[in-house]
Amino acid sequence: MKEGKKSPIANRRPGYPETFKTLRQWNLLGYVPKDGCEGDACWTNAFCDWWSVYYYKDEVRLAQGDERAEFNAKEAERKACKNEMSRRWHNKKRDLRRLEKAAKSSEIIPCENPSKTIVFDVETTGLYRSEDDILQISIIDGDGNVLINEHVHPIKKYSWEEAQKINGISPEMVENAPYPEKLIPKVKGIFDSADLWISYNGEFDLKFLKDWGISEKNRDVKQYDVMREFAPIYGEWSDRFGWKWKSLGVCARYFDYSFDAHDSLEDVRATLYCYNKIKEIQEDVDTPHG
């Protein structure tokens, strides 16, 4: 196929349109492309709504045997794929509108949380808020009680092979999970119940939760990022970047805590344990010794 897309009018030869047709038009007449002929990609009308591949008559030949049937089968498969992609695109737009509406207007479900502390974590399909989804959200209170632990139905992606290798969450596992808007009222209530938000690299999690209407800017709340507090304790320094951030796994091993990483419930439990250990160290440093 030649580079770029042109107008069929600009490509015509004498006899157009009889000698310049799409592959489907030629096939209806019993023709298939000759070997090595790739056709011209051209806009199908003056408004450039869509384009197709056009062939001249000297680029096609009469079909033989089952060639027409094979073409029709491929054409049906192509159309089915196109229809599925269109369906997914419309579903994504619909779900994003629903999420945006829920994030702005959902009523909050109050949460009983005497500790006034939460530890939160999410697992996602990837690293980018604009194109990735939350797949799991887990939040516990300051005493370790589970406030929510749910898989989440994605709305932007249908597969995430690389992330699945890390978090073990497959498309089948979230196929029947609740959509974000079903969880937003409860999640908002949980975040509103706490004056202290604890996390491990919480900046990443809050980036995704912003789409759910969760933001520390909405209220007076203190954040404690265990990753940042642990870095100087571990003590690996870079002249260019300062203290090097370490994974939750490294932090947990440092404090002799074993857990199954990249499950968000396991992660928040490990984060709370490490938080308590770091607070012990910090309090010991701050306490005068006579």
Distance between the termini: 84 Å
Oligomer: single chain
Alpha carbon gyration radius: 29 Å
The number of helical runs is 9
Helix and strand composition category: alpha+beta
- The outline comes out as elongated
Kindly estimate the percentage of residues that lie in beta strands according to DSSP: 15-25%
Number of beta-strand segments = 12
> Strand order of the main beta sheet, please?
8-7-6-9-10
Write the element-wise H/E pattern from the N-terminal end onward.
Answer: HEHEEEEHEEEHHEHEHEEHH
Largest sheet: 5 strands, mixed
Mean pLDDT: 89
Kindly describe this structure.
By secondary structure, this protein is α+β, with helices and mostly antiparallel strands. It is 40% helix and 18% strand. The protein has helices spanning 8-11, 23-28, 67-105, 161-167, 180-192, 202-209, 226-234, 248-254, 264-286, and strands at 20-22, 31-33, 40-43, 51-56, 60-62, 117-124, 134-141, 146-151, 196-199, 222-225, 237-238, 242-243. The strands form 4 sheets. Strands 8-7-6-9-10 form a 5-stranded mixed beta sheet, sandwiched between helices.
